[in-house]
Structures are given as C-alpha cells and as structure tokens.
Write a structure and sequence with these properties.
single chain, 158 residues, mainly alpha, Arc Repressor Mutant, subunit A, three-stranded antiparallel sheet, globular
C-alpha cells in the first residue's frame, strides 16, 4: 500500500508513522546543526547543556542539572567531571546539607558559555529561518501538544 493509499484510507490524514518519521528526521538534522554550532568551541552537546543551564539558572545541585537537561546520573557526573577538569565549573558543598553538591560556573566557564550561547543562538536562528514567526509559534504549540499526549500515554501504561 502506497503513502497515498494509506492516507486515503485514513480520510486524508497523514499516517502517524509517517509523521513520526518526518519529526525524527527533522530533529536529527536540527540536532546536527546544534552539534556543529557548539563543537566549534570544543564542547559536546551535554557539556554545552550543563554550562547553558548554569548560565541561565545559576548554581544548582548536580541532580537538578541532570534532570533539567535529561541526562542520567552517570552521564551528568561524567559531564561535570570533564567541565571541572577544564576549570569551567566547580562543585561546592552546601552548609545546610554536606551531602549535597552544588555546581557553579567559574569565571572562565561563564566567559566560554556566554560566547558559545550567543553563537549557538545565532546558528539556531539561521537553522529556523525557514519558518515565519506564526509558523514557529504553531510548531511549538503542536510539538508541546503531541509531547504532552505521548507522555500521558506512558504514564497511563506504567
């Protein structure tokens, strides 16, 4: 059965599998643009994401950083170890809870991520330039809608 036959059988709707495939391919292409954008400064996406969240949210507990950028515990630890070795961030112990470690940018880390984030923002603007303002707004609305629906389906099944 061709795409047209499947579409016709579904009342003219795009088949969900085709929508997913197009979304996946688009996300991969955009991700490659993002990776190229940040790798020019010697950063991987996870390292960039750690620095970016600290730039915009300030010092945070290690586990909070991991949750915000969707990294596993071992991945966030590895990223923080790499960034600390490069002296781009530091771990500090809180007085309230000596078990909790907060990560914060160093001055060198702040300078790097401010420059990297500006370049990345410009690169992403170029990547998304194909969309008009109203198309971006609609795309965000639709992606949130389908993302929340998909997440709710997973919650219902667990």
């Amino acid at each position: 059965m061709s795409d047209l036959d499947v579409s016709a059988a579904q009342g003219g709707r795009e088949p969900a599998v085709r929508v997913w495939l197009i979304l996946w391919k688009a996300a991969r292409a955009i991700e490659k643009n993002a990776l190229q954008s940040v790798s020019a400064l010697g950063l991987g996406l996870s390292d960039f994401a750690v620095l970016e969240v600290l730039l915009h949210k300030g010092p945070l507990p290690v586990n909070t950083v991991g949750k915000r950028i969707l990294l596993t515990s071992s991945s966030i630890t590895a990223a923080i170890d790499r960034l600390e070795a490069r002296k781009l961030l530091r771990r500090v112990t809180t007085r309230r809870d000596r078990r909790s470690r907060i990560v914060e940018l160093t001055e060198a880390g702040r300078r790097l991520i401010e420059r990297a984030f500006q370049k990345h923002a410009n690169d992403m603007e170029e990547t998304m330039a194909v969309l008009k303002t109203n198309e971006r707004t609609e795309l965000v609305r639709l992606l949130k809608k389908v993302g929340l629906w998909a997440a709710a389906r997973l919650d219902d099944k667990s």
